[in-house]
Every structure is written in C-alpha cells, then in structure tokens.
Specification:
Elements (H helix, E strand, L loop, with lengths): L5 E5 L3 H13 L3 E5 L5 H7 L4 E5 L7 H8 L7 E5 L4 H7 L6 E4 L4 H15 L7 E3 L2 E4 L4 E4 L2 E2 L4 H11 L6 E2 H8 L10 H16 L6 E4 L3 E4 L4
Parallel strand pairs: 1-2, 1-3, 3-4, 4-5
Antiparallel strand pairs: 6-7, 7-8, 8-9, 10-12, 11-12
Helix pairs in contact: 6-8
C-alpha cells in the first residue's frame, strides 16, 4: 500500500525530472512529471496533487506565471526550483504564493526535507464546514447535510465523504481513501472502500436520486464531482 503523497514535478529537463522523481518515490510518495508549462494548470485542475515541484524556466509558460494561475483556484503546496541563485530574492519578493524554493544543484536529502515540511504544514487543522453545492460537511459537529437534510452516516462514511468533498475533481485511489477513513491504520481489504462508497451513495440518493456526487474512475478509485 502506498500511503505517500501525490507529487507533481514540473521540469523540462528529463535527467533532472527523473532524478527528482526517483527522490520522491524513494521517500514513499508517488510522482508524475510534466515538461511543458502550458499543460500544468489544466492538469492541476483535473487532478490536484498534494504538492508541486515547479521549475522556474519552462517552455510555453514559465513557473512564475503558472504559480500565479494556480493560486487563483488552489492552495496546493508549491516548491519553486531554480538554477539561478540570483532569482531567489526575486521569487521571494514577488509574493507569488509559493511555499518554498530549492536551488539547483540540489541533494536528495534537501528535496525530501522540503517536501516533508510543506506537506506537514498543509495538513488540515480543525476543519471548518465545507460546502459543495447542496452538500455541507461540518467536521466540528461531525455532521453532513444534503439540501439542508441531515445524512445519517457512520464515522467511516463521514470521513469518506469529507475526504472526497474536500477536493472536487481529484481522484483518490482506494489506498489513499483507506489511509484517511481509518486513522488507526487497521488492515482491511481494499474492496472495503467500495462497500463504504456503495452505502454512502445509497444514503445520498435517498435524499436526491438525481444527484451523482461520487463517481467511479475505472481502475483508479473515486472522485467527488458537482453537476454542471
């Protein structure tokens, strides 16, 4: 089971991209790579990662512009990567919303340490209520409502709904969902998630049969999607 984070590496030099991916995977996370700056924002909208390693100089669109665009819709942790030390002051002074920076050449230890730090800071504290369309999830009250009507959920079903609704459009694997719905890390079969999703869908459908908020992604897992 991979309980690590999903890290997006935005780097157009294959050797550096592969090196970063190796470091990330060695630390227990998953890694995917994009080399063209024009593809990044749409990719993040489709599948928000847990953190981004973002190179400054990219073909198509540079890291500064990408960071600014992402910050208009997401607070995903971003670590800027630059080969030019003189750029660091400029990066910090631009107030881009980046969480940290790394200068090339870098060491595996440094990359992993910076990632660990931003991921830790990104962990949610006591959550306020989350509202997605007609759905409201209130973590403090441990209560969820649909169209103002209370959903009668088990603790596991509540954590499952809370996780999915916290990142609309993001695809969560079964392993990622198990990590979140079982904080005691008990050992269960991966199909247990399917059973909980089935029960959760049934309870949502009882209040609104036409609303399909939890969608299956074949071979991967599940995502929360509001109707257009």
């Amino acid at each position: 089971m991979n309980n690590g984070a999903d890290i997006l590496i935005v780097e157009d030099e294959p050797k550096i991209a592969n090196l970063l991916a190796d470091y990330v995977r060695a630390a227990g996370h998953s890694a995917r790579v994009i080399g063209d700056g024009r593809e990044v924002v749409d990719d993040v909208r489709r599948k928000t990662p847990d953190a981004i390693l973002l190179d400054l100089m990219l073909p198509g669109k540079d890291g500064i512009e990408i960071c600014r665009e992402i910050r208009t819709f997401s607070q995903v942790p971003i670590i800027m990567v630059t080969a030019r030390v003189e750029e660091v002051d400029r990066l910090l002074g631009l107030e881009l919303g980046a969480d940290d920076y790394i200068c090339k050449p870098f060491s595996p230890r440094e990359v992993v340490a910076r990632l660990k730090a931003v991921l830790r800071r990104a962990q949610p504290g006591p959550a306020a209520a989350t509202e997605q369309g007609p759905l409201r999830v209130d973590a403090e009250r441990f209560e969820a409502t649909l169209h103002g009507e209370r959903l009668d959920l088990t603790a596991v079903e509540f954590r499952l709904l809370q996780t999915l609704a916290s990142a609309p459009g993001r695809v969560f694997s079964r392993d990622q969902l198990m990590e979140r719905i079982y904080p005691d890390h008990r050992v269960v079969g991966d199909r247990t998630v399917d059973s909980h999703v089935k029960n959760l869908r049934r309870k949502l459908a009882a209040l609104d049969p036409e609303l399909d908020l939890i969608q299956s992604v074949y071979g991967v897992g599940y995502r929360f999607e509001l109707p257009e």
